[in-house]
Amino acid sequence: HVTSAHFQATFSNALPVTMLFLFAYLSYCLTGWCESAPRITSQAALLRGNVLLEVLSTQQQGPRNESLRALSQLLDFGNGVAHEAVSTNGMPVSNTYGSKKFPQAIIIGVKKGGTRALLEFLRVHPDVRALGAEPHFFDRFYEKGLEWYRNLMPRTLDGQITMEKTPSYFVTKETPSRLCAMNCSTKLIVVVRDPVTRAVSDYTQTLTKTPGLPSFQSLAFKNSSSGAVDASWSAVRIGLYAQHLENWLRHFPLSSFLFVSGERLVSDPAGEVGRVQDFLGLKRIVGDKHFYFNRTKGFPCLKKPEGSSRPRCLGKSKGRTHPPISSEVLHKLRDFYRPFNLRFYQMSGQDFGWD
Ligand SMILES: Nc1ncnc2c1ncn2[C@@H]1O[C@H](COP(=O)(O)OS(=O)(=O)O)[C@@H](OP(=O)(O)O)[C@H]1O
Predict the structure, then answer these.
(1) Residue 354 is assigned to a structural domain of this protein
(2) I need a labelling partner for 140 at 20 to 30 A (CA). Which of 111, 167, 178, 210 fits?
(3) Ligand 1 atom 28, closest CA
(4) 31 annotated as a binding-site residue
(5) Which of the following is catalytic: 100, 101, 112, 289?
(6) Res. 354: pLDDT tops 50
(7) CA distances in angstroms from 125 to 119, 159, 283, 287, listed in the order given
């Protein structure tokens, strides 16, 4: 009889070897060689890695260790490479199908609204191809030129939509005119979330990167909590949705926008993604059956994300625990945002119910 401890020890010993094997295989692939490699070798590496991960994930109690996480990331990448490099009839193919196009739809905001979740949910759709990283073209790298931007995009076939997400676009003054200069018919998606929670989420992110950061309260108000709200602090400023939208409406008609509720994206992901698919003119393929609620994470997760056969939640930086903020401070911020929220509801024609 193999005991659980035995089983785990055996597979744990195989972990470094498998990771080494996978690293070698993926380096090989990145130089373009795996297209001519014996498929049996490369696929055996991935298969072995996938099985190992599956077993260790179920055996391991509590949080996964670092090497397990590294193996998981390596495999996601490896599975993606294999997916790209091998056609269904088993013949190796080069990644030259389709062409790189400018995005027809962009998730332009808002920071901490739930933009990563929405993009990952949409990527499940076979007619959506999206850039994984945030390119920041229209706000940071505009001088690199449009061809640089187009070249970053994944290849698409006819009928597929190219997408990217950069949440800072919504609040950068120059972005609307620059984006319109590229294509004024680009569809614009904005995931909005209660500006008060969004500000706390933004602060929480900065806090993880900057230990010793002053308190939320001291940054949100000009003097003490009795003072006025400091709208020049970016965590507060980003939540002035009506003001940012006004800037966009100088260049794009309202019909170019879809406003997604960050709250509903958590409580009813299939419903919100359904609206987005309609807006993009896509068949409603991503639906209830693609999601499950992970009670440990406290968020909906995907049963089968793009390029992977395992269920997956977003990473640790999504769905962080927020530090406690006094109800008095939250109240004052809520009062501050109320008129801006009402204006935003009027402009967008949607009531997000934040008050
Ligand atoms: N399914 C799912 N899983 C995990 N997290 C989810 C999900 N749906 C929405 N969210 C919320 O997304 C918030 C992060 O937003 P963004 O991805 O837009 O952040 S970022 O601007 O790209 O940094 C993140 O904010 P925090 O909770 O403050 O971490 C989440 O509340």
Answers:
(1) no
(2) 210
(3) 201
(4) no
(5) 112
(6) yes
(7) 10, 12, 9, 10
